[in-house]
Amino acid sequence: MQIGIVGKPNVGKSTFFSAATMAPAEIAAYPFTTIKANKGVAYARGKCPHLDFEVQCVPRNAVCDGGVRHIPIEMLDVAGLVPDAWQGRGLGNMFLDDLRQADVLIHIVDASGSTDIEGNSVPIGSHDPVEDIEFLKNEIACWMRGILEKGWDRAARQAYQTGQRIEIVIHEKLTGLGVTEAQISAAMRDVELNSNPLNWSPEDMLQLMHHIRKHAKPIIVAMNKADMADAETLERLKKAAEGMAEPTCAEAELALKKAAKGGLISYKPGDASFEIMDGVKLSEGQKAALDKISEEISRYGGTGVQKCIEKAVYELLDMISVYPVEDESKLTDHDGRVLPDVFLVPNGTTARELAYKIHTDLGDTFIRAINVRTHRTVGSDYTLLNNDVISIVSRK
Ligand SMILES: Nc1nc2c(ncn2[C@@H]2O[C@H](COP(=O)(O)OP(=O)(O)O)[C@@H](O)[C@H]2O)c(=O)[nH]1
Ligand SMILES: [Mg+2]
Fold first, then answer.
1. Do 345 and 205 have their domain in common?
2. pTM of the model
């Protein structure tokens, strides 16, 4: 699973990415700072079952901090988007290439309106960021349509004549984008199309692409630079994003993480406040900066960065966390580690599908599973619940 950070140049993508991953990325106020896509690891929080079982966990793939698991998720800082990227303008091709890999997008917009459509700095409030939401969706849909249109007439005619389902043709054309046939079928139910695909107009195709994108690459809008934005613009942005939007202060999140790393403050991602560590002497400048951040994050209930990531994972992608263990009574793996791993899987995943995710052999030799919380034996088609602890029994 991968989260793509997308948006125009200069809106705060690299800042957001660095804050979320704490990896160094170039941060500067001019377009095209991020020339090469930047990959890193961000984290979604989950509740560690060690609390319920009253045991001490020994995590392997996700740190446990006082009962909060930090579950790793790949994140990609995508090259800056400019208008007409789909026609290869600017870093258009690179932008779109990166997009292929993403399962969900965090669209960073400059909610303060101080970045124009091309990514140049302009006075606050002189660009309406609401435009950026449509702009991104349109760029992606146009790009997808461009891919679909190559050799379309021939493929569509053949499908029509042989009675082959058109979803299959579309799926073949869009395989490089990581779009599934189920997502295409879902999109086709959303739009009304002529039964003969040869009669689809370019506008029909664009509508279909919009809907495929909605299923295959859902978007949450990060209303960034919220510290300089006005409430009315945030409201309009939220409406344009159909509610899937969060105010963010990426710069504040980055500053807080750096201050925490430097031992100045105690701050946990997602918190709405922080504390200055005992005995730390702050300079006047540091104190003023932290006061300003403190005011900002109390206004929004946090910097919003962690909220965005978790909304992307838990709401848009509808993921749940499950904890596979080998020994159901000790909750350990073969090395004796208690609750070692947590897996993020789509809601609806079955016990056997989980086994396959752990190891192909485990899926193939699956006999049954044990729901450790209830001590019940469950079959291969048992649908996993959030925070399940599962022991898989296999033919070995
Ligand atoms: N006021 C404010 N500025 C921000 C925020 N996030 C980023 N910036 C600034 O916006 C500029 C562009 O940021 P950058 O991350 O390089 O943008 P990118 O081109 O989209 O990757 C930098 O000067 C950042 O410090 C924020 O939340 N508030
Ligand atoms: Mg950048």
1. no
2. 0.93
